[in-house]
Amino acid sequence: MNAQSLVSPGGEGARSLRFAALLATYMQSANLPLPNSALRLIQGSLSMTDDQAGWIFTAYLAASAISMPIAQWLAARFGLKRVYQAALALFVLGLLLGTAATTSLEFVGARIVQGLASGVLAPLSMAIALETLPLDKRATFGAKWTAIVLFGIVSGPSIGGWIAEHFGWRPMFYLSVPLSAFIFLVVALLLTEKKAGKPPAFDFFGFGTFTLGLISLQMLLDRGERLDWFASLEIWLEAMASALGFYLFVVHVLTSNVHFLNKRLLKDRNFVLSTVIFFALGFVLLSTMALTSPMLDEILGYPPDTTGALTIPRGMGLVGAFLLMGRLPERFDRRFFVAAGIAIVVYANWLMLGYSPLMDEWPVAVAGAIQGVGLGILMPAVSKVAFSTLDPTLRPEGTGLFNLARVYGSTLGVAIVQLFFFNNTQAMHMALVSNLTPYRAAAHSLTSAPLQALEGLNEMITGQAAFIAVIDQFKILLVVMLVVSPLVLFLRKPVAAN
Q1: Transmembrane residues, as ranges (predicted)?
Q2: Do both 41 and 180 map to the same domain?
């Protein structure tokens, strides 16, 4: 970054600033899944359809994926302190817009505002925290920062569920307003800066074409089911825009010498393969949450606080395993732990295929805890492998791309499982209803049944179809991890970090 903050490592001021930066990191990550345990309440008050409920996740993620690559350039161009405070103000604006929303589109728009601010807050919070540390402690700080991000993701639904159950869903967003005010005040009092003497260079063409491709693809996946896919002109336009954006980006990368994705990164086999695995990890990390909480809340009828509480075992397994991996001696080959983490995640997803409408909370808690352990092992292990053979001069750019892979994986993962969920629900509903004919004894009396009884029967069939569709989506997550598992065989043995 060309614009550097004037923060002296050590002292009470530096510790307070680091605490504020880490608090912002936790806050922005916790707000991503915060509404997940209260979807039924949000849908009811905003007349939100099932497919629009999926936008609550994807809008935040896609917006973060847009703003994250440009965060460092903004800080270098306009000043870290100024950009950081603007992002905090934008984040609060998104929170307030969310609480004031009266329609589903207004709420999704508020989530987009939150996501744009979150994509800036995340990398700049880490930059501020790093500047408050002595040089000899910065190398090990990344693991702690990632643990806080994960803790926010896994604890958000339990916090949101408890607040929604006792006070309604809108107050869950007010919780971050005083936190944001505190962070803003600490930054205003303790952080000083100097602006860059020369405006930094940035590959706007590469960034713009990649963003065009990503957002058009996201819109295609989110809107396709509602608009009957390619029967709609909008879907055709989004498909062509996505293809054009990605085509121009690939051509730009292959033909240009200057772009925000360094081609030298693609020459390191460990980094490329590990980034693909990390993409798959992101695909599973949030998609599981996007499926499990609605299953418990909407299909099985669990209250929001119970739905949120059932995410705690997964979070404890994930964060606990992540922290233990940080204490692992360097002599252990991390490739073994990459393979072990993938195997544990696959086993946990296989357990999820055994979910039943008659089950209690324990199968969800056990499968979630096991998956959390697998993800907690896989994440630090694959990160270590990715950067162990990478040229140290490429590590800052590599870190940005590596983290973006997880964000992009989560964005597309949630969109894809939501898409197949609605398709499978409709298909299973038709299959179940086709067996309810007057010639079957169980349905013979339906011809004279009152309308209320028929509505109850249809609701029961819809619930059964939706539950089967959820299980089918867990199969997708299982297949994704199985597909990337052979990549472990092609990883080179990690070398000592330089």
Answers
A1: 55-76, 83-102, 108-130, 142-160, 172-192, 204-221, 241-260, 272-291, 311-329, 336-356, 362-382, 403-422, 465-491
A2: yes
pLDDT tens for the chain, 498 residues: list them.
443 444 555 566 788 899 999 999 999 999 988 888 788 888 888 888 777 777 888 889 889 988 888 888 888 888 889 999 999 999 999 999 999 999 988 999 999 999 999 999 988 998 888 888 887 777 677 778 888 888 888 888 888 888 988 888 899 899 899 999 999 999 998 888 756 666 677 788 888 898 899 889 888 887 877 777 888 888 899 999 999 999 998 888 888 777 767 777 888 899 999 999 999 998 998 888 888 887 888 788 888 888 888 888 988 899 889 888 888 887 888 899 999 999 999 999 999 999 988 888 899 999 999 999 999 999 999 988 888 888 887 777 788 788 888 888 888 888 888 777 777 777 776 776 666 655 454 555 555 555 565 566 666 777 777 788 888 889 999 999 999 999 999 998 876 554
Tokens of 435: 């067996």
Whole-angstrom distance, CA of residue 342 vs CA of residue 269: 19
Residues 102 and 141 in one domain: yes
> Domain for residue 320, yes or no?
yes
Q: Domain with 176 in it: what CATH number? A: 1.20.1250.20
Q: What does each C-alpha distance from 204 to 134, 209, 252, 258, 403 come to in angstroms? A: 34, 8, 11, 11, 20
DSSP codes joined into one string, 197-245: SSPPP--HHHHHHHHHHHHHHHHHHHHTTTTTGGGSHHHHHHHHHHHHH
Specify whether 483 is located in the same domain as 399: yes
- The answer to pTM > 0.90 is no
Same domain, yes or no: 253 and 388: no
Q: Are residues 35 and 115 in the same domain?
A: yes
- How many domains does the chain divide into? 3
What six digits make up the tokens of 402?
A: 């590596």
Chain Cα centroid distance, residue 181 = 25
Domain assignment of residue 187, yes or no: yes
Q: What is the DSSP letter of 48?
A: -
Helix 269-294 to helix 451-484 angle, to the nearest 10 degrees?
160
